[in-house]
Amino acid sequence: MVNVKKITNQILTDVIRKRPANSFKGTYGKIVLIGGSQNFGGAIIMASLAAVYSGAGLVTTITDPSNQTPLHDWLPEAMFVDWNQFEQAEPIIKSADVVVIGPGLGTDPSALTLLTKVFHLVESGQKLVIDGSALTLLASNNLPLPKDSVNILTPHQMEWQRVSGIRIADQTPEKNQAAANQRHAIVVIKSHRTQVYADNHVYENTGGTPAQATGGMGDTLAGMVGGFVAQFKDPQKAVLAAVYSHSAIADKLAEKQYVVLPHQISEALPKFMYKHQAK
């Protein structure tokens, strides 16, 4: 029997450090987010929003050119790179601390080509967050995960079924843990009680509300995971803190709202993190 540990608010002060006076934007990590086809630009914009609002020092969004104007309308802090100009994107990806790929990426041949290129580029010391349609491409093309990066998968249960081969009805902690260990990855399986599998441990979130059941919620979590991992030293604890913060903010908003919109979680992050930083 696997011991499932609860994720509580204790993780916040363990992870969210007080910012030192002599810090600068490089202190808080460089993150690249890749996704957002013409039809799904909102996904990468929401992920980018979450990365910036969670405190990442330097954020670059590599996306379809149709998303440049709406990205900068929502988020002037993010830099933009046209994903058709891969020679410009390549050095930015290689110099990033964290790469998030998948929100709104799509599953067409060009998306697969982009994902494969990114997998070949990432190297030791980098963290790679794989979300959304990148997980579908990973599963349907039997792509091996990069060997040297810290790989973080953020599937919902159907995406995890595709990646792991475990049917939703059979996704027990024991089977999920074995599949996560086999992939040498941190795996965040999103559900009404999200579970995190990392380093042979299983953690279950204690928050979450049906008010979160709306499009873009997972994109926002992927951006938060990227932002937290970019800033805080321990990737496993950073993922746990991001998962907890995502639902804790939503729970608070749901006290007065019928539905919680993903961008509202991002916008609440700076004050939430200030309140829960280490003393």
Walk me through this protein's architecture.
The chain is built from eleven helices and ten strands. It has 279 residues and is of the alpha/beta class. The chain has a single domain (4-275), classed as Ribokinase (UDP-N-acetylmuramoyl-L-alanine:D-glutamate ligase, 3-Layer(aba) Sandwich), CATH 3.40.1190. A ten-stranded mixed beta sheet has the order 1-10-9-8-7-6-5-2-3-4, with helices on both faces. Helix 9 (217-231) packs across helix 10 (235-253). The longest helix has 19 residues, at 235-253. It is globular, with a radius of gyration of 17 Å. Homotetramer. It comes from Lentilactobacillus parakefiri.
Give the arrangement of secondary structure elements:
Layout: E1 4-7, H1 10-15, E2 30-34, H2 41-53, E3 58-63, H3 68-74, E4 79-82, H4 86-95, E5 98-101, H5 109-121, E6 127-130, H6 133-140, E7 150-153, H7 157-164, H8 173-182, E8 186-189, E9 195-198, E10 201-205, H9 217-231, H10 235-253, H11 262-275
Parallel strand pairs: 1-10, 2-3, 2-5, 3-4, 5-6, 6-7, 7-8
Antiparallel strand pairs: 8-9, 9-10
Helix pairs in contact: 2-9, 2-11, 6-7, 9-10, 9-11, 10-11
Please count the helical segments.
11
Helical content class: 40-55%
CATH topology name: UDP-N-acetylmuramoyl-L-alanine:D-glutamate ligase
List the strand order in the largest sheet: 1-10-9-8-7-6-5-2-3-4
Order of helices and strands: EHEHEHEHEHEHEHHEEEHHH
Largest sheet: 10 strands, mixed
CATH domain class: Alpha Beta
Q: What is the CATH superfamily classification?
A: Ribokinase
What's the alpha carbon Rg, rounded to whole Å? 17 Å
Provide the residue-averaged pLDDT: 96
Structural class: alpha/beta
Q: Tell me the CATH architecture.
A: 3-Layer(aba) Sandwich
Cofactor: Mg(2+)
EC number: 4.2.1.136
Subunit structure: Homotetramer.
Protein name: ADP-dependent (S)-NAD(P)H-hydrate dehydratase
